[in-house]
């Protein structure tokens, strides 16, 4: 197969608003280094990490909710998920579905032609369980907002599924994030899980994956999106932010809160947890600054877990769930890659329920 030497790519040139993305039609096609494979990208999902990294929201100088726009002040020393500077220019995009079209010198050529989705966590091959030695695809190295991309061969996970490329591109970030949260919280069939933001990509994945574990699931979402959230299978759907959450829950006993929202409602989420309950968090799109009454925390024997870097097996388990038909994609919309700015605007504004995907 003869591969092109240039490609279309959406390139991020710095932290800021959407105008920091620049469209190129002659960007060099990368060559796979030893240990890597070259992927023809068929679809790439959007996620909050892309938005937050582009805007610099991860910086400790920012205490606002995720807006997707530029912030007045971003400390250039800590603007990424890992608290380190980002190298520009950078091609973002972690959630790829594509086909292996070339391999590095030490990779079996038999892998050429495999259909894959990405495991987004870049690990040290000699120390894969060390969370201090991890990077994120599309952050610490170029990702999938392009026609071609390279990735470590161990991060290119073969998948056998009748789902479309766009549907498969919804799983890598949202579902691995959700499964990582549920794993950290040790969710089982004995639990009742409360999911704020259930209409989002991670929220919808939390609903499905918690149900897969046999748990009872209560979803919070804006009422306009209740019909779509219902297709994911929660036991109960409540408004996004009930004025009196405890009253709205009635006799339900919440043992786990799985949250990527944070913001003004956060204290009420903690207040409804049963004694011995668990709170697991992998985001704060409504705002990172919250108020905690430590008496609630310790007198109720609560456990809090943050969840970012997931265990290597989590994404591999997702492949099994996908191939067995145990989880389904929540594809909201697709956009051409050249319209990434519009796609991110829709993603940020939550115009859609589920995941948005761009097509190179």
TrEMBL record:
Coiled coil: none
Domain of life: Bacteria
Keyword Ion transport recorded: no
UniProt KW keywords: NADP, Oxidoreductase
Residue ranges of every copy of the Enoyl reductase (ER) domain listed in the record: 16-358
Gene Ontology molecular function, alphabetical: NADPH binding; oxidoreductase activity, acting on NAD(P)H
PANTHER family: QUINONE OXIDOREDUCTASE PIG3, QUINONE OXIDOREDUCTASE PIG3-RELATED
Protein name as catalogued: NADPH:quinone reductase-like Zn-dependent oxidoreductase
Source lineage: Bacteria, Pseudomonadati, Pseudomonadota, Alphaproteobacteria, Rhodobacterales
